[in-house]
Design brief:
Layout lengths: L1 E2 H12 L13 H8 L19 H9 L13 H12 L9 H4 L2 E3 L5 E3 L12 E3 L19 E3 L21 E3 L24 E3 L8 H8 L7 E3 L11 H8 L5 E2 L2 E2 L2 H6 L55
Parallel strand pairs: 1-3, 2-4, 4-5, 5-6, 6-7, 7-8, 8-9
Antiparallel strand pairs: 9-10
Organism: Pomatostomus ruficeps (Chestnut-crowned babbler)
GO cellular component, one term: cytoplasm
Keywords: Leucine-rich repeat, Repeat
Length: 322
């Protein structure tokens, strides 16, 4: 199975930090030697670049000019550009294991990753980890750098938060768990200030959470929480869903991507103290507009009364799973 560290290695290889015009090579040997053994130079004089070598300015131009074959695509991240330019100006700082210290953001999307392995700990300064649209079902917190501030796991197969909450990154500000397989009420206990003391943003959208009151009783301990996304869960079908959340979590600023204005908060004031309004059931009306591939009853000749002809009966069953 694919691991995060293997995907991260592929990401660094793709950047080509050790290849021309980056890295250490014959194209910048003199410049590197000068930094290793500096000597006094007369003011206003610059040593000529030997044949076959390039100045740092010329190498940077090869990275920045979009007509260059070594230019990064326009949609690359700011970190990609910074790393590539640093590999030109100070390649010795990104040589070997040192490169792991320079990476602060890893975005590995739809790469077939199944495991968050301990190799990720080599990124000791990592602040953002985005692993959306992979096949991750379990995240071990011991394998996450303690410096993480953003952890995005949208569109995976996470069904249990116990391993993630064993020793979570203490400075985490955003936790994205949308489009996973979380089921209540066993998971709510992991969403408290004891595990996430600095959490500002939480995305739990499109899971299978059903216990609104139980979830709110845990979320109310997250005093730094300002952004919450719960849409797509069965509990969002409750008629008083939004009002109950707005009144129960006064620190919230945005709920389900919609800003909470003072007028709305005033309108729902006191709703949190009326739990009897929270119904544990919902009614869903399904209308079938068209069905294809079924025999048309009118196409069969009507049998006369008393006829001994065969009678054919068709029955159909439609099942909905909630």
């Amino acid at each position: 199975p694919g691991s995060v560290s293997a995907a991260a290695q592929e990401y660094l290889r793709h950047l080509g930090l050790q290849d021309f015009p980056c890295g250490l090579g014959s194209w910048n040997k003199s410049c590197l030697n000068a930094r290793r053994s500096p000597r006094a130079e007369p003011a206003g004089l610059e040593e000529a670049v030997p044949p076959g070598e390039e100045t740092p300015e010329a190498l940077l131009e090869l990275l920045r000019d979009q007509r260059s074959p070594w230019a990064l695509p326009p949609d690359c991240s700011p970190q990609d550009r910074l790393l590539r330019e640093a590999a030109v100006l100070a390649p010795e700082l990104l040589h070997g294991p040192r490169v792991f210290q320079a990476v602060k953001s890893l975005r590995i999307l739809d790469k077939g990753v199944e495991e968050v392995d301990e190799g990720l700990l080599r990124f000791q300064q990592l602040e953002e980890l985005v692993l959306s649209a992979n096949h991750i079902s379990r995240v071990t917190s011991a394998h996450l750098p303690r410096t993480l501030k953003v952890l995005e796991l949208c569109c995976n197969a996470v069904s249990d938060l116990q391993d993630l909450c064993a020793r979570p990154p203490p400075e985490l500000q955003h936790l994205g768990l949308g489009y996973n397989q979380l089921c209540g009420p066993s998971q709510e206990k992991h969403l408290t200030v004891d595990f996430w003391p600095n959490l500002v943003s939480l995305d739990l959208s499109f899971n299978s959470l059903t216990d609104l009151r139980g979830l709110v009783s845990q979320l109310c301990t997250l005093q730094s929480l300002r952004i919450l996304v719960l849409q797509g869960n069965p509990l969002a079908l409750i008629p008083t869903y939004r009002g109950f959340l707005v009144d129960s979590l006064p620190q919230l600023c945005i709920l389900d991507d919609i800003r909470i204005w003072p007028e709305e908060r005033q309108r729902f004031h006191g709703l949190a103290r009326q739990p009897e309004l929270i119904r544990s059931e919902a009614r869903v009306v399904v209308s079938i507009g068209e069905m294809k591939g079924l025999p048309d009853p009118e196409a069969f000749q009507q049998l006369e009364v008393g006829s001994e002809g065969p009678v054919i009966t068709y029955s159909y069953c439609v099942t909905y799973e909630f």
